[in-house]
Amino acid sequence: MPNIKIFSGSSHPDLSQKIADRLGLELGKVVTKKFSNQETCVEIGESVRGEDVYIVQSGCGEINDNLMELLIMINACKIASASRVSAVIPCFPYARQDKKDKVGSRAPISAKLVANMLSVSGADHIITMDLHASQIQIYVNNGFFDIPVDNLYAEPAVLKWIKENIPEWKNCTIVSPDAGGAKRVTSIADRLNVDFALIHKERKKANEVDRMVLVGDVTDRVYALLLDSDDITSQVEHCTAFSPNRLISAGATKVYAILTHGIFSGPAITRINNACFEAVVVTNTIPQEEKIKHCPKIQVIDISMILAEAIRRTHNGESVSYLFSHVPL
């Protein structure tokens, strides 16, 4: 493809390389370093004048440093006369901070702040995957972002993984761990033509589950637990402490957990190792190699082909809606 450049940030070079290989391109030359006072320095090592530039940087690891690195890379390309600069952010940073937690709260809406920073830095377009909550998705075209956003979905890749790796998938029940994930779970259950169930959590206070009630029947069924798009420690604690055992005691035969962004912060890995999951399936929107070394239950779905195809279609002016329901060959 002519007039296109792909650069990788330092957060997930392996995914960037897979995207470039899929497109038959080489990653652009870029040097990132820190001065002694910890300021980030970026040097773009080749001309981007008149080019369609894509910068791949995920919201993981040292999130604040990686976000700042992305902003500087975008600005460096923009002032070097790039025709268009697109930020490819598989896991959007600060996506969970997308609303005030209660009326009258003085908490910021940090996801909106990040969106503004990307726009001000010079980004013309954003490609991301499975934004955390409907607030961001609703406002993609209604003021949350001031630039075009393509929010891709891991669902097609998840469906493919289920069909290829769970022999008894036709006898499974897709279960949402809470009411918030019901819409996503019913969509997957409908496309697989299987049953779905819901776990209702009763809380006495935030992040502390007091009691769980299973709504639906999982007797003698393979159970696929669909977690949030980006489960973190508190959610993993709930699911490992309650959900698998709750469903096994209700008659389920196997328990799979499937989520998009496997952040697994804090003691999450230990909790997963101690839980009765058959497998915990995540995508490679963030690096998983180190976590796999400490937790053999983790399995990874490669979504580089989805991001690569989104880049190709964007560069050629084609629609990306095909990717909402299909995995490119």
From TrEMBL:
One of its GO terms (molecular function) is ribose phosphate diphosphokinase activity. One of its GO terms (biological process) is inner ear development. Residues 4-122 form the Ribose-phosphate pyrophosphokinase N-terminal domain. Keywords: Nucleotide biosynthesis. InterPro entries: Pribosyltran_N, PRTase-like, PRTase_dom, Rib-P_diPkinase. Its cofactor is Mg(2+). One of its GO terms (cellular component) is ribose phosphate diphosphokinase complex. The keyword Calcium does not apply. Belongs to the ribose-phosphate pyrophosphokinase family. This is Phosphoribosyl pyrophosphate synthetase 1B. It comes from Gasterosteus aculeatus aculeatus (three-spined stickleback).
